[in-house]
Amino acid sequence: MADMFSDEDSARFFQMMQMLQRSTLLQMGYLPDQSGTFHYNMGEAREGIEVLRMFQRKTNGNLSDQETQMLRAVISELQMQFTQAPQRRRQREEEEAQSEVIRETFSQPQDGPTEDLSTAVESEEE
C-alpha cells in the first residue's frame, strides 16, 4: 500500500478514512460485526459522516489531490448509502422473516403450511 501513496502519512490518512468508513458502514447495517450481527444506529452513522466532513474542512488546502479525491469519494459514497440504509434494513428484515418461516417449516413440518388437494381430485372424478 505504501507505493500507492506519496508518503507514510498519506497511507495513514487513508487508513484512518477507511476505519471511519467501516465503522459508519457497520452502523448503517451494511457490514456485520464480528459475531455476524447487523446494527442499525443511524445517529452513529451520521456522526461518522460528519467526522469525515470535519476532516475535509480542517484539512482543506493541506491534502494532496489524491487524498482530497479519496476523502471526497468516501464521504459521497457514505452519504448515498446513508439514504439507502433504511430500505436495506427493511429488505434484510423481510428476508430474515422469510428464512425463519422456511426454517420453521423444515424443522416442524407437521405445523407447516399445507395444501389440501383431495377436494380438487374428488370433484374431478364426479
What does it look like?
With 126 residues, the protein is mainly α. It has one domain. 70% of the residues lie in helices and 0% in strands. The protein is built from four helices and no strands. Helix 1 packs antiparallel against helix 2. The longest helix is centred in the last third of the chain and has 43 residues. It is elongated, with a radius of gyration of 25 Å.
- Helical/strand content category: mainly alpha
* Count of extended strands: 0
How far apart the termini lie comes to: 78 Å
Strand content: under 5%
Report the principal-axis shape: elongated
Counting DSSP H or I runs of 4 or more residues, the number of helices is: 4
How many separate domains make up the residues?
Answer: 1
> Major sheet: size, sense and barrel closure?
none
Classify the helix fraction into a percent range: 55-70%
Please give the radius of gyration in angstroms: 25 Å
- Secondary-structure element pattern, one letter each: HHHH
Quick summary:
With 126 residues, the chain is an all-alpha fold. It contains 4 helices and no strands. It has one domain.
Topology, please?
Elements: H1 8-27, H2 42-58, H3 65-107, H4 118-125
Provide key terms for this protein:
mainly alpha, single chain, 0% strand, 126 residues
